[in-house]
Amino acid sequence: MDDVTDKVFREIIAQIAKPDVMFTEFTSAEALSSEGREKIAHKLSYTENQRHVVAQIWGADPESFKKAAMYIKEQGLDGIDINLGCPEKSIMKRGSGAASINNKELVEKLIDAVREGAPKLPLSIKTRLDKTQDLTKEWISFLLSKNINALTLHARTARDLSKVPANWEEIGKAVELRNKLNPEVTIIGNGDVRSYEEIIEKHKVYGVDGVMIGRGILHNPWLFEKGAVSQSHGTKEYMELLIKHTKLFNDTWGKTKSFEVMKKFFKVYIKDFRGANELRQQLMGTKSYEEFCEVINNRALR
């Protein structure tokens, strides 16, 4: 989730309900291995509080993957994830993301390149279902035969995007394949999970070793609260978290990131209370952290 799972948002989540593993923003291996690396290096920045942090990279050039893996190792991240599942058209046109599905020759080279650049770092693959069940079985079987530590499967095809429900039955089949072909590989399921209770359910029903949360964290930042029943959080807590997040965004990025980026989080926090739509519209009209604070302070004075 580009411009979403940045260092700031990960820190907010780490402080309130931390998952076992966090992934960086979607980062180009080619850019990481270029002279202009400094322009995107912030995508891999993290705090010690966020560990374990895995660098998520994409691309289609093995040499760039090798150099990117060496850089990631130098930065002290805890692992590398190759994204073979992004359905964004601009990414797929470059032969990357979901366009890599069943391009076995390329994928093998990418995996080997990462292993050469950072042989001791854990390596995971994130991918999607292929067009048919038979092709998915072939694809997953191939990945399980490679030198990887974990496989994350999003239970939709690239064409599906998020228009259909996630097919967790296919994830269950991937677990069965893992059990037969390579029991050492960790299987992580992804798709349509929005509560900690659902995480436990997916583990019990489909046998996955873990569950990856994407958009679900935007519906409930406290999603990873452990317990029999996740706690509910009221408007006051959401507003306090919004203010904390926005201040940390400003303190961390300053003028290096547009305040517009922060605005995509407003709907995460401002919802389900009287006057929420009006307040959200007012904040969407702000152009800086100072203007944001002015709107919030005026609301508090009412």
From TrEMBL:
Its EC number is 1.3.1.-. It catalyses: a 5,6-dihydrouridine in tRNA + NAD(+) = a uridine in tRNA + NADH + H(+); a 5,6-dihydrouridine in tRNA + NADP(+) = a uridine in tRNA + NADPH + H(+). Its cofactor is FMN. GO terms for molecular function: flavin adenine dinucleotide binding; tRNA binding; tRNA dihydrouridine synthase activity. CDD domains: DUS_like_FMN. The active site is at 86 (proton donor). Residues 1-297 form the DUS-like FMN-binding domain. It is an enzyme of class 1 (oxidoreductase). InterPro entries: Aldolase_TIM, DUS-like_FMN-bd, DUS_fam, tRNA-dHydroUridine_Synthase_C, tRNA_hU_synthase_CS. Catalyzes the synthesis of 5,6-dihydrouridine (D), a modified base found in the D-loop of most tRNAs, via the reduction of the C5-C6 double bond in target uridines. Belongs to the dus family. This is tRNA-dihydrouridine synthase. It comes from candidate division WWE3 bacterium RIFOXYC1_FULL_39_7.
